[in-house]
Amino acid sequence: MQLTRYTDLSLRVLMYLSYPDRSDLVTIAEIATQFDVPRNHLVKVVNRLVHLGWVSATRGRSGGIRLGVPAETLTLGQILREMEGTTALIDCEGEVCVLRNGCRLRGALADALQQFYRTLDGYTLAEICAAPTAGLIAQMHRLVAMPASAH
């Protein structure tokens, strides 16, 4: 199983916004630059995160985004379920398969997927953003705070 780019960007945005030592709002352009991703794709991701209430947004000239919930309350399982959906790993109904009526593969894969999400439910956004990740996120924020001539 591989996460979609959409989910990957969702995780990166949430991790970047989890930095507690920054009082000003973060712009989508800033995040796009930090992660070298297209701004228009990031807008879609951020809109979804705002819709879920995980990110809060302020419009206008001095607007931006920030984490909308405490990082301790979001689990990786919750984030991935929402971003990836809970579709089966294999589509036994859409494919013509001679094993369909007696095969146990779909059940085994469904169990494995549930275990995957249960494992990720044991990790919060705050935990994955702790050291050493916290230092890397802090470094990214410090680069933004530096004057352009200091880069």
UniProtKB/TrEMBL annotation:
Gene3D superfamilies: Winged helix-like DNA-binding domain superfamily/Winged helix DNA-binding domain. Keywords: DNA-binding. PROSITE patterns: HTH_RRF2_2. The keyword Ligase does not apply. This is Rrf2 family transcriptional regulator. It comes from Jeongeupia naejangsanensis.
